[in-house]
Amino acid sequence: MIRETLESLSIIAIPLIVALFVAYAAKKKVPVYESFVAGAKGGFDVAVKIIPYLVAMLVAIGIFRASGAMEMLVTALSPVARLIGMPPEALPMALLRPLSGSGSLGLMADIMKKYGPDSFIGILVSTMYGSSETTFYVLAVYFGAVNIYRTRHAVAAGLIADFVGMLGALFICRILLG
């Protein structure tokens, strides 16, 4: 019952949100198309500014994975994962997602090939992907693009949010899939 309701809601959620934004903008007499084009132009300018930070972050992630540090961390954390009911195969997603969106997307694709998209692990890593953010990527790229170098509590807040997102994904998947 819950699963069918969530599936039905997910089909209409994004179109409904877009329609609500357009309706609200029309009510406020905002030129929607012109505003969209102006935002796209600003986005392009930001994209050009963040390229050096993006390259640096991708190199660091490549070194982390190629050095074997990821495998060592997964091995060390596997007992804790089992204790909370998380399959150790999902640990690489939990560790890589705060670092890289594209890296975690590739990892998710590998997990889908190995276990299948309808397996518990496949659904879990998909939910983890959607329930968390690329914290270090955001801090390195976007904070760097606007010259913020003292991140204060942003790292801790982002990592706590990622951790809660991972636990929430595990909890929801356990409820829905058993």
Would you mind describing this structure in some detail?
There is one protein chain. With 178 residues, the chain is an all-alpha fold. It has one domain. The chain has eight helices and no strands. The radius of gyration is 19 Å and the shape is globular.
Number of domains: 1
Number of strands: 0
N-to-C CA distance = 14 Å
Order of helices and strands: HHHHHHHH
* Major beta-sheet overview: none
Count of alpha and pi helical runs: 8
Poorly predicted residue ranges: none
Helix-residue proportion: over 70%
Structural class: mainly alpha
Overall 3D form = globular
Write a brief structural summary.
By secondary structure, the protein is mainly α.
Produce the secondary structure layout:
Layout: H1 2-27, H2 32-66, H3 69-83, H4 91-96, H5 101-115, H6 120-131, H7 135-145, H8 154-177
Question: Which tags fit this structure?
Answer:
single chain; 178 residues
